[in-house]
């Protein structure tokens, strides 16, 4: 490996060969594949193109490799959706420059932010020879693809937020369920045994409950009760019910979904929670809002911003704006497909390869895909102190 790293083309080979090692029975860095390790990537020369300067072309192709990959992005969608799509496109471009240009032919299709259009483009990609589909970002489209049958369907690396995953349709993004489960596991690993889940009502509530319960069971801890709450009463009713249903819980998990956790936290504070014996666990969704004094003392598992560091400077130099998590997700998925194409060939995108239990390390940290399509991430564990995240543990769990 060192001889390869010191050669003329470290950007491709140091990353791609790292995947081949665990697949052939060897391991790297404790068994984790470094197929996506940004630290092994040399800085490329790039173009200065800013995001959001206008709708991208409906279809464009990058690279000349033999592995045909389709990426579905909402490039011309209005508002935040379109901005996200254009950022992901730039992340994909950087990954192609770093790793993929000679390994992949990456076709980017514009979904326009429309779920119906995204579904049609996905079916088109699946039935016209794509080895992998990256995207879509639209949740209904990802859910629709998950219902499609066919043993020859290529793997889909879905970029939709809060997508639970399905066999062969893998959930890429960190979901609130993942964050809640990892945060609860972080306390369970320290000996906490009895947990309560307060979760915003909605279609995602059952997924959060399932992931949290499964995560706690690994440590011999239990989810004593799950109490869905309505945004209408700010969770006050659920907090009152908790007091009559559970005696002396060790921790309360608050999964607030799209809403602010502040009303629920205020209701908990009126009951003396958090306190000396009861902790509060939040989720990454809290961090989408400004820090609130009510967040003080809560524990949260979320992505490590330091993992993005190796690509962040090069991205800013190349595209004149800072990389965010959307850039990182796109970069990682293109880098992953390129690494697999190099290590096992353009026809090597099997379940065995993608569900490698050793996992992959990318600019969003260490992750792996499971047989049910869900993803599992090893994340730092933080406590909110004086309005900032203070590191408690570098990782909530290993693989």
TrEMBL record:
Taxonomic source organism: Mesorhizobium huakuii
UniProt keywords, alphabetically: Amino-acid transport, Transport
Protein name (record): ABC transporter substrate-binding protein
Top-level taxon: Bacteria
């Amino acid at each position: 490996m060192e001889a390869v790293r010191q050669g003329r083309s470290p950007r491709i080979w140091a990353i791609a060969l790292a995947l081949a090692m665990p697949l052939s029975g060897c391991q790297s860095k404790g068994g984790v594949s470094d197929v996506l390790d940004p630290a092994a990537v040399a800085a490329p020369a790039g173009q200065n193109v800013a995001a959001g300067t206008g709708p991208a072309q409906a279809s464009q192709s990058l690279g000349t490799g033999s592995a045909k990959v389709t990426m579905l992005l909402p490039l011309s969608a209005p508002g935040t959706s379109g901005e996200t799509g254009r950022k992901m496109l730039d992340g994909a471009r950087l990954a192609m420059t770093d790793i993929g240009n000679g390994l992949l032919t990456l076709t980017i299709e514009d979904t326009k932010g429309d779920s119906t259009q995204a579904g049609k483009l996905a079916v088109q990609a699946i039935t016209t020879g794509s080895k992998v589909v990256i995207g879509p970002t639209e949740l209904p489209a990802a859910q629709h693809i998950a219902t499609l049958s066919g043993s020859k369907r290529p793997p889909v690396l879905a970029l939709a937020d809060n997508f639970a995953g399905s066999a062969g349709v893998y959930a890429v993004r960190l979901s609130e369920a993942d964050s809640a489960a990892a945060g609860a596991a972080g306390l369970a690993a320290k000996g906490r045994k009895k947990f309560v889940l307060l979760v915003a009502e909605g279609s995602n509530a059952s997924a959060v409950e399932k992931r949290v319960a499964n995560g706690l069971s690994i440590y011999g801890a239990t989810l004593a009760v799950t109490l869905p709450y309505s945004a209408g009463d700010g969770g006050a009713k659920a907090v009152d019910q908790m007091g009559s249903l559970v005696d002396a819980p060790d921790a309360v998990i608050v999964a607030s979904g799209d809403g602010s956790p502040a009303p629920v936290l205020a209701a908990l504070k009126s009951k003396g929670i958090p306190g000396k014996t009861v902790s509060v666990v939040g989720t990454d969704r809290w961090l989408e809002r400004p820090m609130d004094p009510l967040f003080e003392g809560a524990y949260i598992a979320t992505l490590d911003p330091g993992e993005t560091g190796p690509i962040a400077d090069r991205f800013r130099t190349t595209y004149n704006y800072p990389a965010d998590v959307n850039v990182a997700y796109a970069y990682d998925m293109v880098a992953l497909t390129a690494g697999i194409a190099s290590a096992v060939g353009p026809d090597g995108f099997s379940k065995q390869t993608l569900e490698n239990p050793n996992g992959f390390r990318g600019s969003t940290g260490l992750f792996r895909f499971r047989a049910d399509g869900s993803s599992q991430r090893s994340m730092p564990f933080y406590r909110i102190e004086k309005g900032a995240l203070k590191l408690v543990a570098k990782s909530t769990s290993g693989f």
